[in-house]
Amino acid sequence: MRPLEGIKVLDMSRVLAGPFAGRILSDLGAEVVKVEPPEGDVTRSWGKVRAGLAGYYTQQNIGKRNVCVDLRTEGGAELVLRLAAEADVVIENFRPGVMKKYGLAYENLRLVNEKLVMLSISGFGQEGPESGRAAYAPILHGESGWLHRSAEWNNHPVIDLNLSAADTNASLHGTIGLLAALRVAEQTGEGQHIDMCMLDAFLATDDASHVGLDDLRYTAAGGLVWKGVDGPVLTAGDFRWIWKQLHQVHGLEDNAPPNSDIPTKREYREQAINSFLSSFASRAEMYEALDACNLAWGDIKTTAEAYESPTAQFRGSSVAVNARDGSTRRVAQTPYRFSKSQSGLSSNAVAPYRGEHNSEVLNDWLGVSHHEVNALLEAGVLLEQNPPEETTSEQT
């Protein structure tokens, strides 16, 4: 049995911060229905498109069912309100004020479902002086102090992360808050609204927040990259500790001129380490030398290589799923491994087309007849996407 079986989730979110939270809940056993607008989630065109389904969209929405509703039509918001009345959870990441515009704010939803837990993810919170600002991950990377500190630590120009850490942090913290609120709802019969601010989530997850709060200049540089045998090798830890271990275990000397200042000594010591790690006949021997010093080391791999690593292979970090074009495609597996419960994607999981499950969901949740579904389609409240004829294309 999966931990969240029996939980119904209405996922009204798009792109990453909300959909990732919905994907986690789905992999943990919740029944997740994605409510998508007629124009579709923008991620439907991100990455390799196979059978009309892009890799990015598949990654965040596989395993969900899909209802396509146009909130701008008469009856659209009312239909979502009816679905919310049957749900345990609603997830949304619109800019603050949008849900209220359609009469779907938490204050509206709780009137039809007092046990409902609603997760709202936004850049700067639902209220406050900056709540109306548009926010994507790069904006929060800059606003959180991370980019400035990274540039300062590593003495390089300000360069953004090449992953959406602000989004995924908000997803994870939002999911934790959501699960806690579900526990309260079980005990009290009352749901609640979770206001997850991406800036809050990023600051709370930053293990070096104490630096700014204590007005310090943190000098740690993170991992250090060295010239190794057949390519670079990464070590983690303070440079002084790394040098001490290599000096004591392998007898490295820096050969710096007498009375050299600290920057000069470090330069010579870095040269000594690079020469030492480049001197071995094989990478295996280089690894053994680092292990002898009790130093943490790692290869700098591509993402594809990471998924082929012994650990990722052993743990099933990706799974081959139905690509809906007669073959399979690989998707990242969520990392939860329980001793007794089930979790994760099955090989027959698929990503949904827009409106693919209109009839199925409305019948299951609301008892709506096919006749009423057809009427909603004719009125433009619902939309159904026909699976495209093309099967594969590359998009960025």
Structure description:
This protein folds into two domains: 8-210 and 319-395, Rossmann fold (3-Layer(aba) Sandwich); 233-299, no CATH class. The protein has 396 residues and is of the alpha/beta class. It is 40% helix and 15% strand. The protein is elongated. Helix 1 (17-27) crosses helix 8 and helix 3 (76-86) crosses helix 5 (106-112). The strands form four sheets. The protein has a six-stranded parallel sheet with strand order 5-2-1-6-7-8, sandwiched between helices. Helix 1 (17-27) links the parallel strand 1 and strand 2.
Helix content: 40-55%
Overall radius of gyration: 26 Å
The helix tally amounts to 17
Tell the overall outline.
elongated
Oligomer: single chain
Strand content: 15-25%
Domain count, please report it. Answer: 2
